[in-house]
What we know:
2 copies of one chain form a homodimer. By secondary structure, chain A is α/β, with parallel strands linked by helices. The first copy, chain A, folds into 2 domains: 3-153 and 204-301, Metallo-beta-lactamase, Chain A; 160-196, no CATH class. Helix content of chain A is 26%, strand content 27%. In chain A, the strands form 5 sheets. A 7-stranded mixed beta sheet of chain A has the order 7-6-5-4-3-1-19. The longest helix of chain A has 11 residues, at 95-105. The two termini of chain A are 16 Å apart. Chain A binds chain B through residues 13-17, 20-21, 39-40, 42-43, 46-47, 62-66, 68-70, 72-73, 76-77, 80-81, 94, 97-98, 101-102, 104-108, 142, and chain B through 13-17, 20-21, 39-40, 42-43, 46-47, 62-66, 68-70, 72-73, 76-77, 80-81, 94, 97-98, 101-102, 104-108, 142.
Amino acid sequence: MSLQVIFLGTAGSIPTPKRSLPAILVKREDEQLMFDCGEGVQRQMIMAKGGFHKKMKVFITHMHGDHVLGLPGLLQTMALLGRERKLDVYGPPGTRPFLEGIKETVQFVLTFPVEIHEIEEGGVVCDEKEYAIQAVQSDHTIPSLAYAFLERSRPGRFYPEKAKALGVKEGPLWSKIQQGHEVKLSSGRIVKPEDVMGSSRVGRKVVYTGDTRPFKDMIEFAAHADLLIHDCTLGDELAERAGEDGHSTPSQAATIAKKAKVRQLVLTHVSARYDDSSALLKQAKKIFKNTLIAEDFMRIEIPWLDK
Amino acid sequence: MSLQVIFLGTAGSIPTPKRSLPAILVKREDEQLMFDCGEGVQRQMIMAKGGFHKKMKVFITHMHGDHVLGLPGLLQTMALLGRERKLDVYGPPGTRPFLEGIKETVQFVLTFPVEIHEIEEGGVVCDEKEYAIQAVQSDHTIPSLAYAFLERSRPGRFYPEKAKALGVKEGPLWSKIQQGHEVKLSSGRIVKPEDVMGSSRVGRKVVYTGDTRPFKDMIEFAAHADLLIHDCTLGDELAERAGEDGHSTPSQAATIAKKAKVRQLVLTHVSARYDDSSALLKQAKKIFKNTLIAEDFMRIEIPWLDK
């Protein structure tokens, strides 16, 4: 099952000709999860061939305009296209009055329900059958959330021929063994799940920090993530300024990635001052080699890995 | 003095890869006048090398999201860049609660004053030394304004040598004649302004309809405009649908242009269904030859014409 991360906007605070404002789309089966919703996201969605009718949830990290001002236009375009399916919007307190204020002052009619979930504190904020979304307070200038997409692990593939060969008959015993239990046959023989099933597949994990200074809890929050998408607004030479503004530098993000033992690091929210981001990449790679700088429309496929 | 119209967004309702949402920038000397402010306008401004610190006024036609949702981000980016100069925003009733709602629910601090002028009825809504802005109610699905930029006419150039040759001495008589009055010399000779001055220059006129069905008052409102920018959401084959949605077709816009005797017609607010707009152009040109379809970043220079 494909899990693809599409960077729709990778700018920090102010857009550039190359970078739209922050938005990340995670596509999984027939569902889309959007993280942040900067101005221009509806157009980026059109250009990335994202769907406006699909099952979808939006997760807002914080109420700075560059992360949220694309949401009303996205909703409006969905309505103009006749969306009927509910849209879930998760965000910090303030998400609801923002959307309600827009609905009162800008003339648009929604054709679909919007369910707003304001997140008062961290933890599991969205609990689906095949994945969960966790949130944690990050360390920005205003209350801001980081999010983790956590896919549930899946049992390995079941091989009926192997089961039959070992004398496990089709029926209740198959269910039991598929659920991870040993079964005892009438012959007294014990058959373990690993005798008739492939390796289990560990759920994939993608973490997005939103805007943040480096903070200690992120190391555990992002532990062993397949992909960590981290704030990297300013270069190491501007570390002090980054701290004042509630942002991170390449070295800081790379240090978190290294300590959290993630597989891959992508740096985003890149300040408009960096027309060429290669210096940022160099700074990060000194500490964590498997790093990329996000670019608009960059796509990263997250593979399943066997346990 | 240059007067340039830059189309920053030419889409109708939904953006496309080629067309951003409605916004038109009129550049005149050191001032910028923006008409409508669709989502993405700040990025379009950056790409068109518009200024964020310049003397500027914004004119909103109506409170549909595609015409107004770029305004908060524009203000925020101006503030992030440290703008100090006042920004004037003109629009229909609803402009103020929209902006105040955003200021209350999205975290941003403005570094400059924003003066909001809600336009209750048409007429001259902005009266400057060298130009005025007129508004008139258009015919859309919600209250909507069309705007006219009207530059004041200028007296022709004064030729001192001609005045001296005719015996008009430098001093009060020069001022009098430059202000358009005849002067009587001590010799009894009468010198008229046209004897010592070039042709007067007629002020330039640019009219923008916003979203509208064709309506009769527009003929007078746009009379003799150098440039009429008219709604052209749907082609002639969808005239009924255009009427229902409060929009115009190429033939309707071209008929208005012809009756108003404008010099040039530009069709904008083009529906996303027209990837190729050549059919729209053909429909309009049958009625009014000097027509263009707006494209993002198209620039039209409006020349001074002698009377």
